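Researcher: Good morning. I'm working through a list of sequences from a screen, and I'd like to move beyond sequence-only analysis. For each chain I'm collecting a predicted structure so we can compare shapes side by side. This is the next one on the list. No need for commentary yet; just the structure.
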Amino acid sequence: MTLLLPQIVSAQSVEAKVKKIREQYNYAQEIAKWKNTDEWMEHGCHTLEFKSRANYAGGGVVLTNTEVFLDISDDYERADFNTARPLLTRETSERSSKVYREMLFDPDTGALLFCYQRGLDTDGNTIEWRFYYDNGKLIKSVPARTGESMYMSSAEYILGAAEAMKLIILNFNSIY
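Model: Good morning. Structure tokens for this chain:
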């Protein structure tokens, strides 16, 4: 029984973190609904949109549309006052099939909290994956499988994509 107790406590801790991440995700989705409304402008919300078209040898043309919902601190007391940070990204990539991905970032630390992906698995079936992170480490994956599939990214790849997005926003801040 003493061997199971740490596992039970850890599982409860993970579920509590996942619950908090879900609450933050729902909040970010509510903010995203305001896009292009008076409330959006009134609350100082910002969005960056990127569109790309790449022609990969062997892979063909890939069209990618990315929306980045930014959180900008308006607290004069914070060192990062008036600095943009990614809050939520929405991305659609189209090639022979379509992949949709959202990434949720912690508005205070900028760390990746959550990623949702929808696309095809290696058998050509539509699959949805949810990855939950804590301090840069995967704490839960639904379904539990975390490897690459035909068009879906692994949990580790997503961490790299999140870091790349943070660098884009950092550079945006330097010209903003």
